[in-house]
Amino acid sequence: VQQGLDAGWEPETIVSSAEGLARPHIADLVVRASATGARVLEVPQRLLGQIARKDNPGAVLAAFRQRQLTFETLPRPDNGIWVGLYEVRDPGNLGTILRTADCAGIAGVILIGTCCDPYSLESVRASMGSIFDMPFVSADFEAFDTWRQGNALTLVAASVNGTARHDAEIYGKRCCLLMGNEQSGLPGEVEAACDTLCLIPMRGGADSLNLAQASAVMIYEAWRQQGFSGARDLPT
Amino acid sequence: VQQGLDAGWEPETIVSSAEGLARPHIADLVVRASATGARVLEVPQRLLGQIARKDNPGAVLAAFRQRQLTFETLPRPDNGIWVGLYEVRDPGNLGTILRTADCAGIAGVILIGTCCDPYSLESVRASMGSIFDMPFVSADFEAFDTWRQGNALTLVAASVNGTARHDAEIYGKRCCLLMGNEQSGLPGEVEAACDTLCLIPMRGGADSLNLAQASAVMIYEAWRQQGFSGARDLPT
């Protein structure tokens, strides 16, 4: 809730209990949300668990108005790494990738084609608050590809058809990493539009990485090649 | 089911439907399981979904006898990277890490202290079959540390107290990566026993990576420094 308020998201409703409101930090969040027009509800503590569908809910819950960014309203840093997710279908994967992208200072995430809902319960929960901080846009592949070419982003996809190692110098200064669908990866025409198809190494005999795991490996390798620029407390 | 049989696990029961048994590949699995003493059950297709607790179950299910390896019965490759998980609590994380470890040719996984059950539904499902191929052992920290010293494994932990970057040359030829609990990380005395504490870079302001995501980043970096030895179809 604090992360959402800090990032300027608009709360519609904020819910707490008498026990929660007795804590100054929680009361402060409720005051802040109320000041921006949110409806305030005080409910018995056990109802918080039912609303959150969790055994141990936090002391405060809020419903925020969803945001739908477009390529026009997306923040555009001069440099940076972007992530494209092609038809991601598992909301747990999506939320986890938003969280990792946030940790690695990714510029933004593009949800390409028919993806699962980033605002679903599982996605929001897995994002652990990064849903508020990591900009994302939904687009079809054509609109995405036009945008990325207009921004001179190299397009590097992880693929079983990859011919370069994912740790080769393939990213350049401005790039978009592209990850395929959990079951079927990327269609041929999408792979044909990429600058590089790269392979994440696998032990002989092993099957494949989970999509979020593969995304973490790609994201951290691309950022490593940029010297982890923007990282806090970076040891030498 | 095929992966379990191929890896020599002992099936207690194998379940399929008339539709499943009409497929030669499924019928072959049932014959193989039956030959090793498994009970064979034919049930209506809709029961498969209820047993598997999935909307779209496979055409065959099996229950395998659990294995409990010890340090004495663990395969011991001369080289390799091991993974220690200290009090991992989320079975989805555990299964996902077993899968990633399998993909990266990790020698084995040590479950240290009070961990969640690797044979829980969520863990087995998230492992996507790697539960059969990735050796794992449960131990307390003292037994683990004695074992790893006896095997001359460098102990490298990911920690918010890390003083080396996780991509520095800190692993050596034989090492064990150590990952802490989802909530509390590693206790001070465990960190004191490590050769190196390393930091996975984070953007300023971001919170933390999911445990399985952090594990993937560590595992792939350590393996990268070994030239991805053992990988199949490795591009140059």
Short summary:
Two copies of one chain form a homodimer. The first copy, chain A, is of the alpha/beta class.
Strand content bin of chain A: 15-25%
Instruction: State the assembly state of the protein chains.
Output: homodimer
Biggest sheet descriptor of chain A: 7 strands, parallel
Instruction: Please give the count of helices of chain A.
Output: 10
Shape of chain A: elongated
Structural class based on helices, strands and sheet pairing of chain A: alpha/beta
Helix/strand order of chain A, N-terminal first: HEHHEHEEHEHHEHEEEHEH
Mean pLDDT of chain A: 95
* Radius of gyration of chain A (Å): 20 Å
Helix proportion of chain A = 25-40%
Q: Distance between termini of chain A?
A: 35 Å
What's the total number of strands of chain A?
10
- Biggest interface, residues from each chain: A-B, 47 and 47 residues
Strand sequence of the main sheet of chain A, in spatial order?
6-5-4-9-7-10-8
